[in-house]
Amino acid sequence: MSLEQVSPVGLYIHIPWCIRKCPYCDFNSHELKGNIQEKEYVAALLRDLDFDLKVAGAVQIETIFLGGGTPSLFSPEAIAELLAGVRARVACKPGLEVSMEANPGTVESGRFKGFRQAGINRLSMGIQSFDDEMLKRLGRIHSGQEAINAIEIAQAAGFDNLNLDLMFGLPNQTAEKALADLNQALAFDPLHLSHYQLTIEPNTFFYKQPPKLPEDDDCWEIQQGCKQLLETKGYEQYEISAWSRPHHRCQHNLNYWRFGDYLGIGAGAHGKIHSMGGEEITRIWKVKNPRDYLQSAGGAAVLGGRNHLSRQDLPLEFIMNSLRLKEGFKPSLFESQTGLAWSHISDDILRLKGEGLLVIDSQGVRCSDKGWSFLDELLQRFVPS
Question: Does the first or last residue of the chain, that is N or C, have fewer Cβ atoms within 10 Å of its Cβ?
Fold first, then answer.
């Protein structure tokens, strides 16, 4: 089989257990009760991958991302076994980015070193805040000092490619406290920062019992102050909530925003693949309950559902991802990733440019500053009637 026939894909691996469910979290995560079933779960993940590969055909894994839940609850030995199993089953790009999420309250020095030796080369740490009061309100199990210690241990273990997750707009948070959090993170000179506003999502504890959050004007002040600080420190904003040093963007997430294909294994994991000669795009997802997943992985019963995207769905699906990127997209990318002609959306694009929401130039199509501020309203123009 020639190289041209091999499709590049990302691989997302979901590990669903946490020590405690955060009140703002709407991900498929489950509080750990008893011993973690890592050996059984790794075996299930690899059976799940075998199942997906039968559907996806000839692919090469370009990036791997272990998310959760809290993947760092698994031992380095289990992570090494998992990554070795992936490499034994499917071609992987040489030197590919292998990311893993970790929380400061669930890892220790020996594990960081072990994760690095197991093949993890990018660590994403869920700090959220260094303020003990804010952390308590968020239901986090670590303290600010534990977060500082964890970052130092991770860097000493060889994780130079480090992402720190920070939230702003927290309950009763002031601009001064938000900037103090960001300054503390910047003291470690991480290559990547995820900086995003706390939002209240359905099916969360905060949705049932909402905390008092800063007013919209206050959140705007926080966002703009943090943006100015990050730019001053030499970080580039390449996505709505992502900042990096030059050449250190998260490659796995870039694939999502560019409407690339990816496999998703694990309880509740989602995937997206082109099928039928590239003429059909299908989203699939796995059963959410870890117990059901362990029993069904490897067979059709593992599917929680599938959705074949229609031609009417594709413009919105593409636009809602690609316009999250500051660089936007080129018309050629729209055509190659959707199979639709540029004329399918060109009139809408020109109208939005006329309203000052989009910029069109030799680099392609991207949001203006105004368009990024009103992205949800902009996307409504592409909702199928």
Answer: C
